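haha ok so turns out i had the wrong file open the whole time. this is the CORRECT one, sorry everyone. sequence first:
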Amino acid sequence: MTQRDYLAQQFEENRGHLRGVAYRMLGSLSEADDAVQEAWLRLNRSDATSIENLGGWLTTVVARVCLDILRSRESRREESLDTQVSQPVAMHQSSPNPEQEALLAHSVGLALLVVLDRLTPAERLAFVLHDLFAVSFDEIATIVGRSAEATRQLASRARRRVQGAGNTADVDVNQQRPVVDRFLAALRAGDLEGLLKVLDPDVVVHIDEGAASPGAPRVIHGAQNWAKGAVAFAATFAHVTRFTTSALIDGKIGVLAAPDGHLLRALSLKIKNGKITEIEIIGNRARLDELDLAVLTD
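then structure:
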């Protein structure tokens, strides 16, 4: 076996781990694969005989590549917020395998990806590497260019964001979560009857200017009226409804729609006696950015 063949074999053994790191860092399957491929190219350009821990070396390289991508995203976001708002749907439409990406997003936690997307690049890297992959703060510090203690603080701040900064729901989430799960299942399937079973017959739906279609009503009364439109939306925009998940929104249970892990819509729900009585659909970018989002614990 040649040195190149040996390296290729070792790289393939680490590919799954590297892809997992990159996907959690970036929230995009295509970008994650690009980052992993870049690690392979850098390995080929390196003196592999001097690498003592190949897996650790590759993880560091992938993390550095992802950090560069995230920082580039931040620059683009500052330059053009409008482009960023429209990007999630466009990016996902060009995905070579949207079903695979949706499955991967849900397997790692779509709500987690959404919250991670709101962190700074350094916070995201510190949290993902330490909390999800048990990389030491000393190792992470060399990647982000900070001290180990400063890196620990990055992860701590990120952890508070993921957990909702201590903001506990003032409702019984355990009782309401099954209702939301049934709501999501019906929405993804375009199941009219399933939606009607979880909606109060007199449900009121409020739609802000960022989510409403031009000329469409901003308030809809009645389960039948809204559910029919929701089913039509699910059929037309399956690439969006695939990427829906429950989460805590300002301390209360709700729904996020986030193609490629980028928040596009938030649905704030009111639930009473096992039925959804009110829905607020938020699409305005400024309002979305102000929401306190957190991951629901199992």
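The chain is about 60% helix and 15% strand.
again sry for the mixup
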